[in-house]
């Protein structure tokens, strides 16, 4: 609990109505989109400016109160669970699109802007913000940056980190700093911008963002290819890249995912098939046409049992929307859906999918796999029930084995979700212990008293945990 | 001077012939490509592996000996001058191209690989490493990463930092760490890869690099446009971007640069013109043709007095080679050539060029300006004579004013050269003092005893300087 004095000071900083501390109000901030984690904060505060954030952080730093910065809480790593209580800093009031600069191709926004709203605003001006994380209709840009969010267009266009040009951020000391800006080239000092991307609220609170934009591609076309096995789908992806085509999107779904997606969206997919690829290319019309034709030919040459080119942009959009609904569709099957994002170099995709199948069978679990095949970024998804402790133990063992398999194949434990609580016990597998120590020394350089999102990313033995068992 | 014991230990680590300490040998490592800086190291050591680097760093850390890591020394910021003596760590023996992975589109190389050699190796396989810093025929990949090097293709393709996917690096403690890898998506912990890019050898020694590659563009075409003033050239650049075309290269030269380049390369440029743009587009042939036609039309609509499309790839290559020769050409005019890289957001280009002209006139100096117009990355270049102390003082004042002007226009003090010695007194203009303190705390997290390239990037008052006056 925060003291009456601290509460009064918070109210003086942001106004009475922007400080919540009644249990019913706190409950909504005790969880995020990650299953099986929950903890109550002491208060929720809604700042409206960098100055207010600065005041809150100074106060929290003085009183050693944890600060959990949060947008819409759509992350899948438990990164915004207030496991050590403290203040949830809800950034959703700072949701202004300050500027869309058509000369420099930048957008400057508050961290609370919803990703899809930014898409809409820039596309109306013929511009393009490529990162499209699965939760983009709800997630915020600040949250996307905190988690280093990815999406379906990563293969051709990169991910959130590739579009953050400048930041305003606040340290626990209350200092308001800036890094980067609108310059396409800038090497003045260390790259603080990219260090903050993916730091999950453990280094600073981001209060303003300058993003890179591109011209909106002229057109796009979509193609689906169905396979009687997994290997041919993976081989098709390799062959497309080897033929020097980089599609905007190359999505993969296994049979289990195809079934639930088809049931959910009524697409009439050929459910006897073992896997499918959903490929989109964008760009100038003549190039898109040529690439789609070449991709169709490559798919057939690599064992596709069926290849269909979407007849219209609407049909293409419908197919992609169905793929976007994969998580929602899968989550209807069982009470608890655990979505992972083990990622491997593109060339190891088939091996990784087979490993996931083998592990699911070994532990008697239902795991469907879909994901961004072009990136090697898979989402093995387990449908389970958190009330079944025995099964959950098997789920945990299976995912541990999946992480080890990804690392063995040169991959990583998380491609686009982040570490948070969910994967911090496995981070050392990717980075090694010495890197983790170095990262913690970097954290101390920003946050010497450790108030920013304590207990996330790094495993600390002596944490004070107040987890509410649901 | 290093002690006989330390010398013997270095010799034991790398072999006798890879430790130099005779004055005549040291002299060659007392300077880099930056005018007016020079200082003798105590020794030059040539490691052949990460293990050798580890041993050298442990030894240096124990004895508090500065380590100045260096490739070909082509940097223009004084970043590899051993101002506090110590050991120059020459990485040129670690120049193997370990692997070009055509499935994952990556190259894994030693830091000592010469940039142009990498270009040649990957292009022979139909692949493309876009970063092309001016010194690419001599510079090394390790040096490019240390400085965050840019080049002519930054507008469309980004710069070195956008192509570094993974690193192996060694801390002063001797620990050999890895970050990133071949995964297109990877958010496992803080982004150490990008923190090391542009850190100028102050954080760690890079011993292996994994770079992102692209398919080689099918074709390219080049166009030149001449202008009777500066503003029309800048307006053309803005209009091209506003029409949603992103050319691979948009280079600018003012009249002074045109004259010396023409004299140097015999191009027959129309020297009565005040400025010119050199524009290259690459990609699929039909798109390149269409873009070049549209760019030609836009240039004419925005006041170009002449527009010429290169008739062949050879003619285009000749024009670009002439632009690449700008620094060499200018350096023939006077004994000392000082090349800066003040950078502004693209939309402020014309203002910045005019500011440079005004400042040159104010201080009675000959400053020619050329650079990467698409990036707002200018190279105001002063032809002077370092033996003329009075003029050099005016040069220093003029550049100080140029840096202030860049910052005032939302720009930065260095777009692609780095801070080093040359710009460390101005870094605070861009970052603010609090950011500099934070960066120094980050440095301490890597290098607690401050042995790595001491005195670079940050202004430290109590440095031990042993500068040899030339």
UniProtKB/TrEMBL annotation, chains A, B:
Q: Which cofactor does it need?
A: FAD
Q: Name one Pfam family in it.
A: FAD-oxidase_C
Q: Which residues form the FAD-binding PCMH-type domain?
A: 37-216
Q: Which UniProt keywords apply?
A: FAD, Flavoprotein, Oxidoreductase
Q: Which InterPro entries match?
A: FAD-bd_oxidored_4_C (IPR004113), FAD-bd_PCMH (IPR016166), FAD-bd_PCMH-like_sf (IPR036318), FAD-bd_PCMH_sub2 (IPR016169), FAD-linked_Oxase-like_C (IPR016164), FAD-linked_OxidoTrans_Type4 (IPR051914), Oxid_FAD_bind_N (IPR006094), Vanillyl_alc_oxidase_C-sub2 (IPR016171)
Statement: the UniProt record of this protein carries the keyword Oxidoreductase:
yes
Q: Does the keyword Lyase apply?
A: no
Q: What is this protein called?
A: FAD-linked oxidase C-terminal domain-containing protein
């Amino acid at each position: 609990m925060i003291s009456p004095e601290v509460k009064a000071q918070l109210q003086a900083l942001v106004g009475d109505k922007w400080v919540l501390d009644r249990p019913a109000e706190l409950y909504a901030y005790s969880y995020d989109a990650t299953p099986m984690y929950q903890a109550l904060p002491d208060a929720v505060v809604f700042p409206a400016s960098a100055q207010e954030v600065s005041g809150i952080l100074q106060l929290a730093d003085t009183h050693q109160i944890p600060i959990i910065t949060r947008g819409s809480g759509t992350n899948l790593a438990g990164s915004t669970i207030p496991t050590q209580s403290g203040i949830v800093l809800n950034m959703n009031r700072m949701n202004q699109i300050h500027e869309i600069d058509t000369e420099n191709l930048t957008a400057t926004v508050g961290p609370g802007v919803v990703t899809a709203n930014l898409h809409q605003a820039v596309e109306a001006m013929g511009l393009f913000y490529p990162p499209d994380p699965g939760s983009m209709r709800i997630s915020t840009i600040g949250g996307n940056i905190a988690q280093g969010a990815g999406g379906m267009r990563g293969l051709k266009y990169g991910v959130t980190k590739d579009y953050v040009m400048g930041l305003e951020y606040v340290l626990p000391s209350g200092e308001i700093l800036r890094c980067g800006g609108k310059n396409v080239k800038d090497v003045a000092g260390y790259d603080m911008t990219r260090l903050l991307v993916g730091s999950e609220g453990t280094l600073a609170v981001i209060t303003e963002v300058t993003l890179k934009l591109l011209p909106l591609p002229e057109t796009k076309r979509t193609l689906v290819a169905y396979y009687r096995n997994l290997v041919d789908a993976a081989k098709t992806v390799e062959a497309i890249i080897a033929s020097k085509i980089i599609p905007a999107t190359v999505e993969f779904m296994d049979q289990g995912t195809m079934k639930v997606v088809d049931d959910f969206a009524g697409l009439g997919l050929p459910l006897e098939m073992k896997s499918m690829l959903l490929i989109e290319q964008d760009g100038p019309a003549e190039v898109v046409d040529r690439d789609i034709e070449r991709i169709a030919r490559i798919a057939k040459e690599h064992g596709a049992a069926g290849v269909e080119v979407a007849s219209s942009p609407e049909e293409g959009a419908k197919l992609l929307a169905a793929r976007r609904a994969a998580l929602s569709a899968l989550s209807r099957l069982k009470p608890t859906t655990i979505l992972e994002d083990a990622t491997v170099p593109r060339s190891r995709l088939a091996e990784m999918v087979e490993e996931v199948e083998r592990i699911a069978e070994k532990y008697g679990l239902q795991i469907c796999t879909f994901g961004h095949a072009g990136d090697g970024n898979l989402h093995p998804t387990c449908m389970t029930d958190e009330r079944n402790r025995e099964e959950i133990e098997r789920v945990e063992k299976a995912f541990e084995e999946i992480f080890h398999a990804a690392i063995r194949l040169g991959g990583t434990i998380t491609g686009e979700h982040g570490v948070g609580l969910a994967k911090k016990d496995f981070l050392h597998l990717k980075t090694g212990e010495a890197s983790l120590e170095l990262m913690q020394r970097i954290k101390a350089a920003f946050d010497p008293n450790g108030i920013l999102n304590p207990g996330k990313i790094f495993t600390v033995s002596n944490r004070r945990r107040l987890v509410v068992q649901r």
